[in-house]
Design goal:
single chain; alpha/beta; Hypothetical Protein Aq_1857, Chain: A; three-stranded mixed beta sheet; 9 strands; about 25% strand; FeS_cluster_insertion_CS; ATAP_core_dom; HesB-like_dom_sf; Iron-sulfur assembly protein 1
């Protein structure tokens, strides 16, 4: 092999090799200044390190050695939203509470669910039914020890209403005073709410 062919390659390798010790020594010096270890001797070819990083006191360094990774700082606790008292979705009059108590206190205790069906000349009518347990999204209204369920599909049609029990010579029925009604039929059996 001809040694002249490797001449330029050797020169590049030699110049790169001369830079390695300087880079290596300067990185060790930076590590030593950060961790306040014994400083390495400086040569005249390298510029002094800047003192922008303050070294840690030796007492802290000794306590951190072997301690592992530093624990993350504690997060401040988030404020939980305060629950405010809200109006019930449905208010019951004393006569309605008394009648519902009579209906529910049968031999097989059941709950009464109030819903709305598409029916009548105005579009919707109230629908009451017995159920064994509340549905997944049913609204539970408890007043004076009586539990009433509101069907989740009917909640926006019924919200804010008042339920009253009315008895007269011709009929006995629950009557709803609903502030959401915009149209009702003449007989009062069906209603319509604003969309």
């Amino acid at each position: 092999m001809n040694s002249l062919a490797f001449g330029p390659l050797r020169q590049r390798a030699a110049s790169a090799y001369h830079h390695l010790p300087r880079l290596h020594t300067s990185s060790l010096r930076a590590y030593a200044s950060i961790h306040s270890l014994h400083p390495l001797p400086t040569s005249t070819q390298q510029p002094p390190l800047s003192s922008t990083v303050a070294p840690e006191p030796p007492s802290q360094l000794a306590s951190l050695e072997g301690a592992g990774p530093k624990p993350s700082p504690a997060r401040p606790e988030k404020k939980r939203p305060q629950l405010r008292a809200t109006k019930a979705a449905l208010n019951l009059t004393p006569s309605a509470v008394q009648r519902l108590r009579q209906l529910v206190s049968g031999p097989t205790p059941q709950l009464i669910r109030i819903g709305v069906r598409n029916k009548g000349c105005a579009g919707m009518a109230y629908h009451l039914e017995y159920v064994e347990k509340p549905g997944k999204f049913d609204e539970v209204v408890t007043q004076d020890g009586v539990k009433v369920l509101i069907d989740s599909k009917a909640l926006f049609s019924i919200i804010g209403s008042e339920m009253h029990w009315q008895e007269d010579r011709l009929s006995s029925k629950f009557i709803f005073k609903n502030p959401n009604i915009v149209d009702a039929c003449g007989c009062g059996e069906s209603f319509n709410v604003a969309a």
